[in-house]
From TrEMBL:
Belongs to the bacterial solute-binding protein 3 family. It comes from Marinomonas polaris DSM 16579. PROSITE patterns: SBP_BACTERIAL_3. One of its GO terms (molecular function) is ligand-gated monoatomic ion channel activity. GO terms for cellular component: cell envelope; membrane. Residues 1-19 form the signal peptide. SUPFAM superfamilies: Periplasmic binding protein-like II (SSF53850). This is Amino acid ABC transporter substrate-binding protein, PAAT family. Keywords: Signal. SMART domains: PBPb, PBPe. It is found in: Cell envelope. Its main location: other.
């Protein structure tokens, strides 16, 4: 009798586990994407070379190419949804998109709201400096002074980096990267703090207008963000990242956007 009872209990447990797994899969974003035949990606156009508009008005960039290969691997269409940065996590949480692929730094604060994949690239904060400060300012510590004004993008990790490392300086926040860096070009700010890729490209395009202090002073891993409670989607995404990094796909995309400047003439 005891053996029969244990066998029945084991069978019941297995049935419940199977039902639970099926429920998780039914609710999984991955299952919904496959049934819909379309992957909806939230991204904010304006962060070179990750997400930006070309001269035709289409959103292109490093993130977009990764999203394209991801959708192809799923066998679905891709829908890139341009979303303002301050509303991009709310958009994900309210099912306006399936995933955020938009150069988003993994932070504890964001991780309380969303889950992140393994990092797909690591960047850091650097400084675009007014030419008039050449030789006077050589690193971020020199800018930690009340006589300096620093510009950056509202809500970006650069915002928090300035508040943490240059708290004595005056901070002016802007909705976009381009607005912030123009403050330096126009003489209204002493420095612009932002991610290395953007600053490197901007300084190359605007030689003489800004000086790039290109040594990163923060460590910032970037990840894809998805809604919580979705192990199936997370498993697919992390395995997908491992696959494209192993088979050369990732390196090919990286070389296109980070090791070459041929694309710059085609963007707005």
């Amino acid at each position: 009798m005891k053996k029969i009872f244990i066998s029945a209990l084991a069978l019941c447990s297995a049935t419940l586990a199977s039902a639970s797994d099926n429920d998780l899969w039914e609710k999984s974003t991955l299952n919904q994407v496959l049934n819909r035949g379309e992957l909806r990606v939230c991204a904010e156009a304006g962060y070179m070379p990750f997400d930006m508009r070309d001269k035709k008005g289409d959103i292109v960039g490093f993130d977009v190419d990764i999203a394209k290969t991801m959708a192809k691997a799923m066998g679905v269409k891709l829908d890139i949804r341009n979303t303002a940065w301050d509303g991009i996590i709310p958009a994900l949480l309210t099912d306006k998109c399936d995933i955020i692929i938009s150069g988003m730094t993994i932070t504890p604060e964001r991780n309380l709201k969303v889950n992140f994949t393994d990092p797909y690239i690591v960047v850091g904060q650097t400084i675009l400096l007014s030419p008039k400060l050449k030789g006077k300012v050589t690193n971020y510590r020199d800018l930690n002074d009340a006589k300096y004004t620093i510009a950056t993008k509202l809500g970006a990790t650069s915002d928090y980096a300035v508040k943490r490392y240059m708290s004595n300086a005056k901070l002016n926040l802007f909705e976009t990267e381009s607005e912030g860096v123009l403050e330096v070009v126009n003489g209204n700010a002493d420095a612009f703090v932002y991610d290395l890729p953007y600053n490197a490209i901007y300084s190359a395009q605007n030689e003489g207008k800004v000086l790039h202090l290109d040594e990163s002073f923060t460590y910032e891993p970037l990840g894809f963000a998805i809604r919580k409670g979705d192990p199936d989607f997370m498993n697919f995404l992390n395995n997908y990242l491992a696959q494209i990094k192993g088979d050369g796909t990732y390196d090919k995309i990286y070389q296109k956007w980070f090791a070459s400047s041929s694309w710059i003439s085609n963007v707005q």
